[in-house]
Amino acid sequence: MIIPATSHLRLPPATRNGCNYVVTGQLSHKVGVTFLTMRPVLPVLGLLLAALFGPLFAADRPPNIIFVLADDLGWTDLGAFGSKYYETPNIDRLAAQGMRLTNHHHCQNCAPTRSALLSGQYGARTGTYTVGSIDRFDWQTRPLRPVDNVTKLSLERDTFADQLRKAGYATAMFGKWHLGGTPDYHPSKRGFEEAIESEGRHFDFETKPKTAYPQGQYLADFLTDKAVDFIQRNQAKPFLLYLPHFGVHSPFQAKPELIAKFKGKPGAGGHNSPTYAAMIASVDESVGRVMAKLDELKLAEDTVFIFASDNGGVGGYDRPDGLIREPGKEAKGKKAKAGVDEDGGGITDNTPLRSGKGSLYEGGIRVPFIVRWPGKVAAGSAHGAPTAHVDLFPTLLELAGAAKPRQTLDGESLLPVMLGKAPSLKRDAIFQHFPGYLGSGPGLWRTTPVSLIHAGDWKLMEYLEDGHLELYNLKDDLGETKNLATTQPDKAKELHDRLVAWRKETGAPMPTPNKKAEAAPSAKKTGKGKKKAGA
Ligand SMILES: [Ca+2]
């Protein structure tokens, strides 16, 4: 058992871009605030206490881990991340009781993020860099042939669930998988002792395996029923609960009573859809029910609770400068299956970030991330250095005391930063590699092939069709409006050299010349963004 925090334990207020706390893990619970001011002598005192109370500490079990992943929820789509229209009281409370990572990055769409989270590897190594086949979009008119996309997470990779299960955890997953639809790739074969997969519809949904549910039930509620039941049954041992919601992905369907609640509420900025607000509210209700179950079982302090989204929000495409939304334009577009208007609008807005889901500008890849561990992670804190999907796997391994997987891990454990034991990570850069195309309607592309490095305040993108570079200082220009590649050539070259070296190190596959487009150069200008599927 973890010892409850003493009532006089008080943590200093959060800083916006870093954590300067000295939180001493379980020892701090025992001895209270005194230890918070005595960092240099902690190792000695820790040894003394261990000698005195050895059996007590030895009996500690590793924490339970809950990871709730929303689908397509944008960086500003939570109250705790700035929305003035959507209402997320439970997730906001989670953030108030824990730490927000304000500069956290996933991939630009679903499958590659999940592949990176579950394997701990960049897409440059797994081969999963987008959703589905390269033929989802009309790349044939473009100068490059995309790299074929790997749609299943190789069975040669261990998932974090595999590793935690081997370390003695009870493991479960309920929700969207997206790492292979055949039985041998089902999450129940990838480390999750219990697994029910569902995505595609919010009502009248199908599950793998087939599972009965009340007629008319909303998918988020069904998944939450399974989650709280799993916690109830596994409260006596460490457990891993992965709850990847299909909400708030299109189709935009929500519970009528929640839609009605938002119908009379005035929108704020680009946040104004009652249906989308209701979908977010359902994800928030889910988080609230899981939190309530932990409270009921007195497990909150023994549980690391993580909340994130898999990619940026769907919207912001009609703002070429990344800041100004054209009034009314979004209303004219026909909603496509993926939730992207044919004329480039969207269901939400990621302002102040540029663009949205499917783009490698910040609106597509920067996502909300919250971690709560009462008494361990400082309440109300935030960390602002660049972090990424690949950091989750090593973080979970360290939390669980689990062994490393077979494959190379690309990330770094965030635990020292989360616990306030380190002001920053050792690593100073994160990367992305997208050797393909994502369309957004005729003539519009959410992205063309691109790789990027994000180091400190700087982000360099190399667009692979013509090799042009874009350099942004995100500290001064979060909306990515001023390309500094020509005015700061030394910085551009330094980062480009590092990006090229990283591609070489990871064996990143590169797109190849599209011979058909070369034969008909005029086709390059027409570039239809044919849509075939969602995500
Ligand atoms: Ca998604």
Per CATH, the class of the largest domain reads Alpha Beta
Sheet-strand content, in percent, reads 5-15%
Count the beta strands: 18
In the predicted model, the low-confidence regions spanning at least 5 consecutive residues are 1-44, 49-58, 321-343, 522-535
Q: In what order do the strands lie side by side in the largest sheet?
A: 6-5-7-1-8-9-2-10
Q: What is the correct CATH architecture of the largest domain?
A: 3-Layer(aba) Sandwich
How does the overall form come out from the CA principal axes? globular
Question: What does the model show?
Answer:
It is a single chain. The chain is of the alpha/beta class. The chain folds into three domains: 2-60, no CATH class; 64-428, Alkaline Phosphatase, subunit A, CATH 3.40.720; 431-519, Arylsulfatase, C-terminal domain. It has helices at residues 26-31, 42-58, 89-96, 110-119, 123-126, 160-166, 219-233, 256-263, 274-296, 329-332, 362-365, 392-400, 415-418, 489-506, 515-519, 523-526; strands at 64-70, 99-101, 104-105, 144-145, 170-175, 194-197, 239-244, 303-309, 369-372, 381-383, 387-388, 429-434, 438-439, 445-447, 450-455, 458-463, 469-473, 512-513. The protein has an eight-stranded mixed β-sheet with strand order 6-5-7-1-8-9-2-10, with helices on both faces. A four-stranded antiparallel β-sheet has the order 12-15-16-17, covered by helices on one side. A two-stranded parallel ribbon has the order 3-11. β13 and β14 (445-447) form a beta hairpin. 52% of the residues are buried. Calcium ion (CA) is lined by residues 71-72, 109-110, 249, 310-311.
